[in-house]
Amino acid sequence: MRSSPAWLLLLAAAGCGVETDDRPATFSYIHEAIIVPSCATAACHSTQNHISGVDMQDRAAAYAEWDDVDAKEFSAIYGLIGGEVDTSAVVLPEAGRMPLDSPLPEADILLIGRWIDDGAENN
After folding, report:
1. How far apart are CA 42 and CA 34, in angstroms?
2. DSSP class of 51
3. Are 15 and 113 a contacting pair, CB within 8 Å?
4. How far apart are CA 7 and CA 3, in angstroms?
5. Which residues pair with 84 in a beta bridge?
6. Which tens digit of pLDDT belongs to each residue from 32-82?
7. What is the pTM (predicted TM-score) of this model?
8. DSSP readout, 56-103?
9. Helices (DSSP H) in 1-70: which residue ranges?
10. Residue 89: what pLDDT?
């Protein structure tokens, strides 16, 4: 697990005045609780619409989208590489936030960051 000082500062700042997030940093939880209701909607990355060619509705398909490309291509397209949260666009504020109409809450982004930092396993 590799963390940059910037990522640690973000975690520390997010923790000020906020309760500990006891949610599991697992792909199965993140997919069900965050990705499906926020990303796999009919207007975005669903089986019906495939915005940018990405289907996030089915858990296996969503993970396969990430698992089928090499690390450099993966980072450029999907914005994350397991264990490299400090270079993962999906959690960096300067990369912009999705969904555009209602960006993910900071707590969800931090949970995804924990999962990435733990290796982005299909767990």
Report:
1. 15
2. G
3. no
4. 6
5. 2
6. 999 899 888 878 877 777 777 777 888 988 887 766 555 555 555 455 667
7. 0.71
8. -SSHHHHHHHHHTS-HHHHHHHHS--TTBGGG-GGG-GGG--SSTTSP
9. 5-15, 27-30, 36-38, 59-67
10. 64
